[in-house]
Amino acid sequence: xxxxxxxxxxxxxxxxxxxxxxxxxxxxxxxxxxxxxxxxxxxxxxxxxxxxxxxxxxxxxxxxxxxxxxxxxxxxxxxxxxxxxxxxxxxxxxxxxxxxxxxxxxxxxxxxxxxxxxxxxxxxxxxxxxxxxxxxxxxxxxxxxxxxxxxxxxxxxxxxxxxxxxxxxxxxxxxxxxxxxxxxxxxxxxxxxxxxxxxxxxxxxxxxxxxxxxxxxxxxxxxxxxxxxxxxxxxxxxxxxxxxxxxxxxxxxxxxxxxxxxxxxxxxxxxxx
Length: 273
Known about the structure:
Layout: H1 13-21, E1 28-29, H2 34-39, E2 44-45, E3 49-54, H3 60-70, H4 74-78, H5 81-84, E4 88-93, H6 100-113, E5 126-130, H7 134-151, E6 154-160, H8 162-166, H9 173-194, E7 197-202, E8 204-209, E9 214-220, H10 223-227, E10 232-238, E11 243-250, E12 257-264, E13 267-269
Parallel strand pairs: 3-7, 3-10, 4-5, 4-6, 6-7
Antiparallel strand pairs: 1-2, 8-9, 10-11, 11-12, 12-13
Helix pairs in contact: 3-6, 7-9
């Protein structure tokens, strides 16, 4: 039994051997924001579905753009050969044009922090797709994404947002649940083969308490059919000015908690940055 301080305490010899052999499975995408790294236990895992939920203006897209950039410079922070194997990003937009001007603004700011990175190198490695309905999303994930991955290794897939694709109240809920599962199962298979993290942004809705008629309870949209497929859920809220709160609602590898960060013209950073 392994009882050292490496984080693998109580592992059998063979389990520890598997962890070492398949290190890429436990790779994490760090935020380059200390409060968020600490909240998530070291960053976002490269397996499962990570959800960024929040209302309009809470910073979901801003944080997704930030991750699209910093996920590519993980090797700069960690000096880790495993991190260097994953580089590009696939960014799927479903409800608004891709905010390229904002991305360049954030990339320029990161360039000052990491001067060794060639200008434009990060944004040039982001593959952008626009689509607006479930069938097109399924086709993109099951047919087009594997073709791209064969020749273009990526470290992150972003779907911004999952709500816009499936939020139609006229949809058949059973069909929608089956579509959720097909997409997530395909992503899991591709993650095992190509090693990338997956982030989906999600809107929120207000739930009325029947006993008090209070609509103050805010929960992520799309219900239990989607929620049961989410690996880690982060919920963002706007507090004061450019300050944002991020709550970790559940994760198999980190305790629930809350952290604060800010969104400025330069991008995402800690409050005391």
